[in-house]
Amino acid sequence: MRLVRMLTVGAVAAAGLVSAPAFAEPATANSIQLGLGFRYGIEMNPGDVNPWGIGLGLDGGYTLPNAVYLGGNIEYFFGDSVGDDTNGATTNIWQLSAEGGYDIGLGPIFVLRPKLGLGLANIHEKGCVLGACTSDTESKFALLPGATFMVMPPGFNLSADLRYELIFADEVEKALLIAVGIGF
What we know:
Layout: H1 2-19, E1 31-43, E2 53-63, E3 68-83, E4 88-102, E5 104-105, E6 110-129, E7 132-151, E8 157-168, E9 172-183
Antiparallel strand pairs: 1-2, 1-9, 2-3, 3-4, 4-6, 5-6, 6-7, 7-8, 8-9
């Protein structure tokens, strides 16, 4: 009787392993993706002014038949300001990045894409003291590891993106970037 139970448990476990779903081919395989969306950047450095804040972005890329993704982003963040035109500071960022990733199919319309972006961040700063204002724009290297989750019903896709950005300036600027978008 004990042998029958062990064989039954073993057979059920083996059937579960054999019938367990494997990763599906991603819905993005061998296709072009284009999208636009809203961005929000949370500064991770101490300071009064967040150069990211609310933003907009365009992204596009191509997923090869082997599920490797190659693409890029153009993003503009409106930044933040403190004070006024007499005594204050304003800063914002716009950036271009190329990214590569790997699309993992999680079902017929779900895709998870771990990715790494490399690019150029352009930081614009304006400061005013007693009405005398100066402004400066610097272009710095940016590294953006992250992941995108996509839902792809027929005809369009919805995406949610989370990235950690490092901008290599005099002091390394860090931010958590959150993006939501729609594309096709």
